[in-house]
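lol so apparently i was supposed to do this last week
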Amino acid sequence: MAISVIGYAAASPTSELAPFRFERRDPRGDDVVIEILYCGVCHSDLHTVRNDWGSAMYPVVPGHEIVGKVTALGKDVTRFKIGDAVGVGCLVDSCRHCVECEHGHEQYCDHMVLTYSSIDPKDGSVTQGGYSNQIVVSDRFVLNIPKGIDMKGAAPLLCAGITTFSPLRHWLVDDHSKVAIVGLGGLGHMGIKLAKAMGAEVTLFTRSPGKEEDAKRLGADLVVLSADAAQMEAVTGKFDLIIDTVPYDHDLNPYIPTLSVNGTLVLVGYLGPLGTALNTAPLVLKRKAVGGSLIGGLPETQEMLDFCGEHGITADVEVIAMADINKAYERLLKSDVKYRFVIDMATLSG
Ligand code: NAP
Ligand code: ZN
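anyway here it is w/ zinc ion bound
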């Protein structure tokens, strides 16, 4: 029998999110049924709701920073038991047998299924995310939340955490590295905490005067105002790795001189054509690179959660009621959040 669920959905790119009843599938043998306790609010939720990427399937129930408790299990599930604290991130399935899946890089599988606004090829349904009271997910895509970690602060690790952890690991960040993060929002604040915990010297590039004190509290050694030419000049040739979390088109050229020889700027925020052409000369002349990175696979997401458990890392969150989501989106657009909204699903009645 299908599971009846209540959530919040957007019916079109211009409508506000509103209560929405729908059904989750009857659990298959490998499924985990989860009562959602908290769900983080990622800027990708807002991009999808407003159809910035042209891929939204309405009605959209967003949310891919999900934590909760297991309430039921399919007959074949052995990794979890009822009552376990678990998480679900941006992926709920993939083909499971291509090279990327075999390497645990399910995020790069051509047939990966996103947590919301994606078609589940097993039954043709459109996936619906974590702004809801229950979710049903195959056990391969369910993560263990380390014991003792605060559940509210753990929710954003499922996207903001892994999206910054994965490039830090891929580009081999350690205690000799100099890392910069562009943008102090949900992803940016996790990037600072994680890079610092890996031993790197960490710098924040921000367009916002007034974030310096907070950035330092989060672990930044240096804060550079990106609009200040003298501050930019002072960090010429410094960074092995820059992770750029800015959600909208912006000029990358000012950041390239701040990379060291062999340095890499990794985009995780904006997806699309650049309005200002990238000058390739400084890339060629000093073997610099501009790349991108998408969330992380399941094994690496579990590694990140365990790393956060060991180092006592969670997100800085502002807990909101479900009914306040539309106000939260307006504030997110103004970068008015320190540093992640997390919805308390106990406020979702009905
Ligand atoms: P967020 O909380 O809104 O933070 C974005 C930060 O970027 C802001 O705090 C701001 O920091 C800076 N910024 C610079 N110009 C901006 C502008 N015009 N508008 C808004 N912010 C601007 O967003 P987030 O949740 O961290 O997500 C960041 C981006 O990453 C989004 O595009 C999201 O879709 C994407 N994302 C990608 C992946 C992936 O796998 N690659 C995963 C999750 C999210 P300052 O004030 O410090 O400049
Ligand atoms: Zn996200």
